[in-house]
Amino acid sequence: xxxxxxxxxxxxxxxxxxxxxxxxxxxALRVNCQTRCAQRDGALVDLSAKDFDLLVLFLRNVGRLLSxxxxxxxxxxxRAPFSSRTLDTHVSRIRDRLGxxxxxxxxxxxxxGYGYRxxxxxxxxxxxxxxxxxxxxxxxxxxxxxxxxxSTG
Length: 153
Description:
This protein is of the alpha+beta class. It contains 5 helices and 9 strands, in the order H-E-E-E-E-H-E-H-H-E-E-E-H-E.
């Protein structure tokens, strides 16, 4: 399992990465990747640099199962000393600080022996949604596409 994750990571490094949006909005959450600010219901949320990077990774991959190896490489780097408990602590912290809980329409759950998945839960049915469920509420902006009346800095 670990070997497969490493091979996938090597393959990803070789591919040119598309430009990522600078602002991610999902319901009450707003994350500005350029200024590295996260907000919930308009209030700034205090996050460490690693917590912020982890949050952005989850928000860019809603509904997708992320392996621990992929998370480690993306957030901490391929050679960083890392324990499984370190990841669990960071995930718990962003879950608590941003309200990524079923009562707020989110589920940030561990998948035993593999990794984590952030899922959007539709309030009307209680169903878990991935890409299809998020199309109506996920908004990604580049610096040139900011909604009117908003600045990038």
